[in-house]
Every structure is written in structure tokens, then in C-alpha cells.
Amino acid sequence: MAEAIVLSVIENIASIIAGTVLTKLTSLKSPLSEVHGRLEHLMSIFEVMSGSLKDIDEMKDYNHTVAAWAKQVRGVAYEVEDIVDEYSYLIRERHREDFKGHFYNLIHVFRDGRTWYRTANHLQNIETKLDYLMNMRNQFGINTSQGMTIGNNLSNHNEQISCFAESSHFKLENEIIGIEENRNVIENWLADDETSQYVIAVWGMAGVGKTTLATNVYNRQKKACRFSSFAWISVTQTYNIHGLLRNIIIDLYEGKMEAIPQSLNTMDYRHLVQILQGFLHQKKYLIVLDDIWSIEVWTYLKNAFLDCKLGSRIIITTRLYDVAINAASKSHVIELNPLPEDEAQRLFCLTVFGEGAIKYPQDLEELTQKFLHKCDGLSLAIVCIGRLLSVKDKDMILWQRIYDGLNIGSADLRDVYNIFRISFNDLPGYLKSCLLYCSMFPEGYKMPRKKLIRLWVAEGFVQKQGSKSLEEVAEEYLNELTYRCLLQILHITYKVTVSRYSIHDLLRDFLLTKSREDSFCEVYPNYHGGELSGDIRRLAISNSMSDLRLKTSHHLRSILVFDPKASFSNLMLKNSFSSFRLLKVLDMSFAPIENLPNEIYQLYNLHYLGLHGTKIKKISKSLGRLQNLQTLDVWKTNLDNLPSTVAKLKRLRHILAGKYSVLSGITITYHFVTAPRKICDLADLQTIKYLAANAEIVKQIGNLTQLRSLQIGHVTQSQSEVLLVALSKMERLKKLGVIAISQSVIVNWEALPSLPPYLQWLRLRVIFANGKLPQWFSGLVQLQHVKLLCSCLSEDPLPVLGLLPNLLLLGLKDDAYVGQRLCFQECWFPKLTRLQLIQLNDLNCIEIRRDSMPKLSTLYLKGCAELKIVQGMENLPSLRELVLDEMPNELINSLHNTPDKNKIKVVKNWILRDGIWDYEVINN
Questions:
Q1: N or C: which end of the chain has fewer CB within 10 A?
Q2: Do 190 and 330 share a domain, yes or no?
Q3: Residues contacting residue 469 through CB under 8 Å, at least 6 positions apart
Q4: How many domains does the chain have?
């Protein structure tokens, strides 16, 4: 871990030295130039030491002397990091960019001479410490070469890891071994004739596969259509009853695509229970409560689950037997035990050697048995160590070294931690920091992919690789961690790409322990209930912070707030942030704050400012002081305008602003944020979300050639032609949304040679000139997500859209097509999984030919008043969900009375009648 910290310090020093501001000021002979020189010298020393530290981090089992030496180096690195950040802060605090500012800067260089002399002396002392540590390594014979073998082969697998990372989640079904018997028992209980609601409890030690079993049963039941409503909630240790009830309600409403009740976040326990019971009335539901830690939480929750005598079921998983027998009768309790030897061996071979493997090479037989003995049937441990071995050479000596890293301990959770430790130690330094960072998120938290990437970049964990952007490199980091089974992909059914990740609770516990050892981060409140260390660098607040005294930790670089009810008084914010002037990351998403104290605008080192979901209405012009800011997240706030000074933030990479309102899963209103024209001078910008167009911005936005994501609204007729010219310059664009100011704006897309070739996501709410798609549309072969709104296409768009090879989601809404018939021809839409046809007022017939849309799982039809016939439903082999929202009765009756009804597989069928969702099965 010391290596990762030293590498971060090297990057920080290099960034400071390369800064244009510093270059101007240090060209003068002053104490500042001496500081500059000593920093360069320290960077050289650390570059030499980083090799030794890398070897130590990869060693299988180093002794206390080596550990103590590495700890000393880490401590010195932290000292240098403090100096570098303080140095950067003072330079930025004193800097001005206007003509008068040049003289102002010079004055302060000399006025602060005493500060710079102290800094130079401090750096000189650190040089002495580093010399001593280098001598100590030689004096005590600290050998760092023995661990080099373990990590050498990683680079050879980069291409393989990149290819397999996205698909690893989908292989988990094949990796589920040894649960068939218990799964059959549970499924028999779910299907029995008992009409009264009852609870099924699955309990066992951590990592034995409780969640895996419950997940598999839950997913199979969603496909089997025995229940009409489903919800899955992770409870965790630090539960909040109100939050759990809200999550259950949200899961149930989203599953039915109903609008979530307003003011849900402010409701008390009684009202939340009433809302939940009202929803569950006369429904047969299946609810999974994963990882319950106390009888108390079950006592609060069980009263909310209405028993309508329709055969509803609740599945809970827990590590505690007392919880299991309190929630369920003993006849409905399953104790999950470790895998027997034969099934453990099957799982190990599958994970290490791939599908179809049932045996291992003879020369690895003895080591395989050793690994299996160490895992002792724990499926999580088998998969974790198996994934590690799968990316290694099948070499006996190498496997022996890895096994030796699994220190023999007692038969409790320390055995699992040892397995996590070897997987962690095998990571390169940059991935260690990224993984440790994930432990700051609350237990059971669904970590947003893009946010995680931006935070890693802001923290300086991501290393530049050739022409790739830092965000693209961070995406590769995510893929590698996913493939190593250290992060799990969470798929949300209506999404077409991976949007969130999770981390196993056991792994998170291990990482938190490691983080505390290295002063990397701390979580408040923590499990051990101790005081916050004054040396911690990062702090996550996941619960009430009324007793938290932030002033005690002056080394903080990051604060992440996860409690939406955290009490932030202006006085508390002022006092806190005046002490943490070296902060790089401040995320207060969903915190109940309406104004930002001026002290935040003095955090000159800030790279990430997260105000997502707060009640902020205005941001001061003082924002322009935050010259290091990379991400400004004011998404879903009450902000109407960005201050003019945002254009001064030359390092800004992501602007997330604006919001939208949703009803029944369909976007109905957009709120775009106005910005200054000079925002188009920010050359590093990669993301602009919900920007209001005006004549000047549309004219200049083509300068932003690094943009990967652009969502722009309020586009007028006259601006549309200029915008097309700008779009032709954005070759790196992957996500594009264009929303016209009214439904009368016509865009001549034929005037554009083509949209960027790498485009993956497209949403357009404009009228297409000539009523047809442009010719170049068929060339957008990377497109995965397309939504067209108010397009008034008179020519059938399917012959073009159907040939897009990677299209996963297609939505046509609000007269996007004004023809009467849509015919889905053979071999069209080979990867489409979700189709939305919404308010196409002239559409009266849909025909689906054989071999069209072979992977379509969800068909959503809403408000197509003239649609009476859908022919060929039996030609959709993968269809699992049909949603009919405000559709004619003739269509509903035709689907039930079709002579080919017996050819249609069982499909969940949601029908909205008189404002109430009914559940049916489309065939008998």
C-alpha cells in the first residue's frame, strides 16, 4: 500500500512543478524557488524508492522489520503530501490572473518568504529522513526482490481482462454450484397451497452463499410469474427503518412502473407503513430482505407486510440463528452449510479453468487440494481465490507462492480475510487505492459507476496511459476489479449498460481494517466505536453526525456524506471547512443544505464538489477561485444559472446540472441550466449535462472537442443549423441528447455529414426534416440506446434502426413515428432487449416476423390509442415482460384470444385499467 501512496505523491509533485502559475513565480530567485528545487529532488528519491515499495506490496509474507520500514516510508510520504498540498493551496490562494495580479503575485512571493523558508527547511528534514530510511534498508538487509514473481504476469492478461470483465457477471449462473437442493426446497415452499403469508429464513456463516441462493431463487421467480410484485432490499448492520421502508416502496413501485409517491423522503414511520400496505393490498408478492442483523429490525418491518391470504412470501437472509427462528417458523428455516468436497472441487475447476472443466492438471493436484482445504467449502472464498488463479500461469511454483500467502489461522472469519488479503496484495498499487476507496461507501450501497470513476480521478488514483482519457483508464480499472470478483456488477432491468457496482460485506470489512492501518480512510460511525484518528486522510459519514467532531482531523483530503438527514448548520460547516482547507473531495449529495458557506470557496485544492440532490439555489461567483476543480455536480438541485466565473475553471472536466421530472417511468419535463458563453473555452470538458442553449453557446460549443457526453436543451430553429456544425467537430462524443425548445423545431439532419462514430447513447426531441432518418444513421454501429421523441417520421425508421448491430434499447415516443404500421422483419434488431412504443397516435398495427428481436425481454406499449393488433408475439422467444399502459381493450382481448396463444411462452403482463395495475399471465 505504501507504493500507491508514494506514486500519488510523485504525481502530485509533478503536477505542481508543471503548473504555469508556479513556473512564473519560481523563475525569480526567492525562497519559493528553493522549495521548488527540493520538491524535484524528493520526487527523484521517491521514484527510486517506489520500485522497492512495489516489491514489498507484492511479497507473499514479509516480516515485522520490512513492515515497520514500509510504514515509516508511508509516514514520510504523507508528510510530503501535506507539504505539497499546502504549497499548492498557498500558491492558488495568492494567485491572480489579471494584469494587476502579476504584481500582486510577486509581492506575496516575497511577503510569504518566512513561510517558504519554513517549508524549505521541512523538506530538507524530510530528505534526511529518506536518506536514513534508504540506509536502514541496507543496514537491516531488507530484501524486496523475493515478491517480484507474483505480480509480473499481470500485464500479459490486460487484454483478456478487458474482454471478460463485462461478461463475468453473466457467468455467475454457471458458477452457482451446490444450491440445487436448497433452491428446490425454497421453490416448493413458494409454490405450495398455503395462502397465508409466511417467512422463509436462510442463515449461515458469512460468505457461505446465502445471498447467492436468495438471488437465484428471486430471479427465477421473476421469470416464473408466480408473484405479481417483487422487492429486494439489502438491510445491513447500520440500518435505518425509515430508509428501509422507503427502499421497499420504491422497489415495488418501480417494478410496476408506477409513479413513486410524493414527499416519500419526509414521511414518518406510520405513513410509510400505510403507503406500503396500500400498495400490497390484494397483491401476491415476494420480498427478499438480505442480511438482517437484529431481531429489532424485523420487528419493525414485519408489521408493514400485509397478509391478503394470496400466498405471499418473504425471504430473509441472516448470519444470526436467533434472527432466523424469530422471523420464521423452524419448519421454514434453512441452514446453509459450506459446499461438500466434490461440489467445491467443481466450483474451483470451473472458476480457475473455465466452463466444462471438471478436473485439474495432475501436477497441480496437491496444490488444488490445499487451496480447497483452506477454503473449506466457502463458495465466496473458492470463487475469490479461483479468479486470482485464473489470470495466473498454471505453474506449480507460482501457485505454491500464492498458497503460502494464505496464512494459516483459526476457522473463523480470519480465514476469509486471508483470502481477501492475498487477492488485495496481488493488485497493483493504483488498484489498491481504488478498491480501498470503495470501502467508504455504506454497507450494501449501490455505487454509481460514473461517480466512482470521477472520484478516483479527483483523488489522483488514475494514471495517464497514452492518448486515453483518465476516465477511460478508470473504466479499465473497474473492469479489472470486476473480473477479479472484488466488485460485483449490479444490473438494473431498464438500463442497457452497467450503471452500479457493489462490494461484498466481508471484503468491505477487510478493506476498512486495512484502510485504518494505513490511515487511508475512516467511516463514521465505525463498528469498533473508537474515536476518529487525527491522521486519517478520508472520511465517510454514513449516519447521524451530531456527535462527530470534525476539527480533530486536520489531514483530511476527502469527505463523503451518505446520510441525507445529516444535520448541517451554517456554523458547523464554517467551522469544519475552515479547518480542512486542503480538501480535494467534498461530496454532500442529498444533504439538506440550501446555501454554501464562503469557506467552501476557499478550498483551493478542491477537485470534486458534489451537491447532487441538495436544495442549493445559487452558487456564488467565488466558485471561480476553485482553480483545481474537475467535477461540479449540481444535478437535481434548484439551481437555474451557473455563475459566470465557472468559465475560469480551466481544469473542469464534468458539469452535471439541471434535472427532469418523471411520471410512470416516462420523462415528462426537463429543466436546463444556463451557463456563460466562455464555458466553451474549457478545453478539458468531457461532460455537460442539461445545458440550456443560446445563440452564443451553440456557436462556440464546437470548440469542446474533448466532450464525451452532451445533453443540451431549449434549442431553437435558428440555432439547430449552427448546432449541427458544432456536433460534426465532436469526434469523441459517446452520449448526445438534443431537446428542442418546442415541438415545432425542425432539424435538417441531412445537412450533417454524420454524428460521431463512437456514439453509444442518443436521445433527440426534434422534428426530422423530410420525415425520415438521415442516410448516415445506419453507420452509427456503436449505438446501444436510441430514443426519438416528437420526430414526426412519416417514413418507417425500422429498416435503418433494425440493422444497427449493437442496439439494446429503442424508444419511439410522442409521435416519433406518424405512420400506421410497423413491421419487424427477419434478422432485424439482433441484440435489442427493450422496446418502448409510447403515444404513437397513428399506429394501428405491429407485425413481428420470425427471427426478429430474438433477445427482446421487455415490450412496453403506452398510449397508442389506435393500436389494435400485435401479430407474431410467439416469435419473441426471450420476451419476459409485456407492459400495456393505457392501451385499447381490443388489443388486450386480441392477445388473450389469439389462436397461437399456446405458442407464446409465459410472459409477465402488466395492464393499466382505471389507474390500477393488474397482473396477468399472457398464456395458460
A1: C
A2: yes
A3: 686, 706, 708
A4: 5
Query: Does position 723 have pLDDT exceeding 90, yes or no?
Result: yes
Residue type, 114: R
DSSP 289-332: EEEE--HHHHHHHHTTS---SS--EEEEEES-HHHHHHHS-GGG
> What is the span of the domain harbouring residue 474?
429-517
Lowest mean pLDDT among 325-339, 396-410, 460-474: 396-410
Q: Of 125, 146, 167, which residue is a domain's last?
A: 146
Q: Do 905 and 859 share a structural domain?
A: yes
Residues 6+ apart with CB under 8 A from 882: 858, 859, 861, 895, 907, 908, 909, 910, 922
Asked if 137 and 248 sit in the same domain, the reply is no
Q: 580 in a domain, yes or no?
A: no
Residue 268 lies in a domain: yes
> And the C-alpha cell for 525?
460511525
Give the CA distances from residue 626 to residues 136, 579, 596, 892, in Å, rounded to whole numbers and listed in that order.
42, 17, 14, 58
Helices (H) and strands (E) in the chain, counts: 29, 33
Q: Are 109 and 201 members of one domain?
A: no
Cα gap 455→462, rounded to integer Å: 10
Question: pTM of the prediction?
Answer: 0.75
Residue 75's alpha-carbon distances to 52, 518, 712, 803, in angstroms, are 16, 9, 47, 58
- In 3D space, the residue among 876, 836, 844 whose CA is nearest the CA of residue 860 turns out to be 836
Q: Which helix (H) or strand (E) holds 920?
A: strand 916-921
Q: What are the tens digits of pLDDT across the range 74-103?
A: 777 777 777 777 777 776 655 555 444 444
The CA distance from 444 to 501, in Å, is: 10
Burial class (CB in 10 A: 0-12, 13-18, 19+), 136: middle
Residues 71 and 93 in one domain: yes
Report the C-alpha gap between 112 and 116 in whole angstroms: 6
Asked if the structure places residue 686 within a domain, the reply is: no
If one counts every other C-beta atom within 10 angstroms of the C-beta of residue 683, the result is 12
Residues 447 and 480 in one domain: yes
